[in-house]
Amino acid sequence: MTNWNGTIIGPPHSNHENRIYSLSITCDAQYPEKPPKVKFVSKVNLPCVDSQGNVIAAEFDTLKNWKRSYSMETVLLELRKSMASPNNKKLTQPPEGSTYED
């Protein structure tokens, strides 16, 4: 189980509300000792996501401070919390349904 598909439903009272975000999660041979690689398929504007949709581990605490006990659910829930944070919930978002190119 190396490649996972994840889904985040945008948190209420934010610019993400009523949006469904798709993500791909890749676990290499070092997982669960090392964090997975997380990439948004759906375009999103968040400080911890680069221009190709990759979640930047150094800018996302859950990946930066990875613990073996964390799960895929932990990653998705923490990303959703990040979307709802006061600094991020009003960020302008790309058009709904747009995706990153491979």
List descriptors.
102 residues; alpha+beta; Ubiquitin Conjugating Enzyme; 2 helices; 3 strands; 18% strand
Description:
Residues 83-102 are annotated as: Disordered. Residues 1-102 form the UBC core domain. One of its GO terms (molecular function) is ubiquitin conjugating enzyme activity. The chain is of the alpha+beta class and 102 residues long. It has one domain (3-84): Ubiquitin Conjugating Enzyme (Roll). It is built from two helices and three strands. A three-stranded antiparallel sheet has the order 1-2-3, with helices on one face. It starts with a strand and ends in an 18-residue tail after the last helix. The relative contact order is 0.24. The model has no long low-confidence stretch (mean pLDDT 96).
State the shape.
globular
Instruction: Please give the count of helices.
Output: 2
CATH superfamily: Ubiquitin Conjugating Enzyme
The number of distinct β-strands equals 3
The radius of gyration over CA amounts to 13 Å
The assigned structural class equals: alpha+beta
Walk me through the topology.
Elements: E1 3-9, E2 20-26, E3 37-40, H1 61-64, H2 72-84
Antiparallel strand pairs: 1-2, 2-3
Region (Disordered): 83-102
GO molecular function: ubiquitin conjugating enzyme activity
Protein name: Ubiquitin-conjugating enzyme variant MMS2
